[in-house]
Task: inverse folding
């Protein structure tokens, strides 16, 4: 076996090759791209015996994505993606002085591959359609997060100089198209007070609101109510920032809708889409997010417990002497845990059996989030069974009513 440490940067890779005894056979700095990959193949071919194949090479690198990693997997090498925190702890055990360099990092990764191979998890290559779902699902969620950030900034600015707008547009939501159109048309208190009921109702009609007369009257009254304000010069400056924020939010709304269509289209092409959609509390968007973060590589999760551990829903136990405590996992995939949290929230609202399971944890004294996490943990186990057997969700099988059935 050859053990390779690959310390990657944006434009190059520092590589070290060790044999089974830990002797350094090769060191090199390779450029990113096709030329670098070709030189790596030549480097490893020169160190391997003539009758050995690429499966006799184990490569450790601190990432699991990108064209470089996919090229390594496609070449037949065994590739292990190392968490940077794990690599840092291993490096600290090798150099107590705290010295650090790219060459030393490559040496630490190669040593980690050689000495801790049994503890490392190889990169499991997902299918191309799963990779595509991951790209569009993450992009869609990132756009939503960006919209939330800009909405909070918009709200903070309005509160500073135009609090009446927050009260007037609260029933419509700040990110709704009609609210953004009204703010763009009248970003100052004086301009908003001059809006007629006809102008307000026309905007609401254009965006298909219900109860237009009542909403128009409430908005007009709130905008014309006297309130504390800022000097005209300061108000004009705030109005300029509001116009910019409204333009950004309008664009984000358009792109979020467009990306949602892409997510649904790509997710619908996946062979496991039917299984995900059959799960309680999961629709196309949540199903795409869960699929994207779990992946679809065969054998990645050998047991339901392994999938739960990766999901971050399974608890961890800390025991020392007579002290034993159970804690939630705070180190997890944020995107995945968010999707599972939303699934559990929807499931307890629409499924009486799952609601009963949630209530049982609440009666034990757990707070809402802890009980929801336990519910999500159970749902992950059910999903694992469905994916393993390639069968859609069956409520009777998932929630047996007798001990014999369980």
Result:
């Amino acid at each position: 076996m050859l053990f390779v440490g690959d310390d990657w940067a944006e434009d190059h890779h520092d590589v070290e090759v060790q044999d089974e005894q830990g002797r350094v056979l090769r060191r090199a700095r390779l450029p990113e791209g096709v030329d670098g990959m070709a030189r790596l193949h030549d480097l490893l071919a020169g160190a391997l015996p003539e009758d050995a194949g690429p499966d006799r090479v184990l490569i450790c690198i601190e990432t699991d994505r990108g064209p470089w990693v996919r090229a390594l997997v496609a070449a037949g090498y065994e590739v292990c993606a190392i968490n940077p925190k794990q690599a840092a702890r291993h490096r600290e055990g090798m150099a107590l002085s705290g010295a650090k360099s790219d060459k030393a990092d490559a040496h630490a990764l190669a040593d980690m591959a050689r000495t801790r191979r049994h503890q490392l998890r190889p990169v499991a290559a997902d299918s191309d359609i799963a990779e595509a779902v991951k790209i569009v699902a993450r992009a869609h969620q990132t756009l939503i997060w960006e919209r939330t950030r800009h909405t909070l900034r918009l709200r903070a600015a309005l509160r500073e100089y135009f609090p009446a707008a927050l009260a007037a547009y609260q029933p419509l939501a700040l990110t709704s198209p009609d609210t953004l159109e009204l703010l763009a048309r009248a970003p100052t208190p004086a301009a908003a007070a001059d809006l007629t009921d006809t102008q307000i109702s026309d905007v609401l009609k254009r965006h298909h609101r219900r109860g237009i007369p009542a909403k128009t009257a409430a908005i007009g009254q709130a905008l014309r109510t006297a309130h504390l304000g800022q000097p005209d010069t300061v108000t004009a400056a705030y109005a300029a920032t509001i116009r910019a924020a409204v333009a950004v939010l309008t664009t984000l709304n358009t792109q979020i809708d467009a990306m949602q269509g892409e997510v649904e289209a790509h997710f619908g092409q996946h062979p496991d889409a039917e299984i995900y959609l059959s799960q309680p509390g999961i629709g196309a968007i949540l199903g795409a997010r869960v699929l994207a973060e779990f992946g679809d590589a065969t054998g990645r999760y050998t047991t339901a417990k392994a999938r739960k551990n990766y999901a971050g829903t399974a608890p961890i136990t800390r025991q020392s002497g007579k002290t034993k405590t159970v804690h939630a996992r705070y180190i997890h995939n944020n995107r995945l845990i968010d999707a599972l949290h939303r699934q559990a929230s929807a499931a307890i609202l629409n499924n009486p059996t799952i609601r009963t399971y949630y209530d049982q944890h609440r009666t034990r004294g757990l707070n809402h989030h802890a009980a929801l996490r336990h519910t999500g943990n159970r749902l992950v186990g059910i999903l694992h069974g469905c994916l393993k057997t390639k069968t859609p969700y069956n409520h009777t099988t998932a929630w047996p009513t007798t001990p014999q059935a369980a």
The CA atoms of residues 152 and 174 lie 9 Å apart. The mean pLDDT is 91.
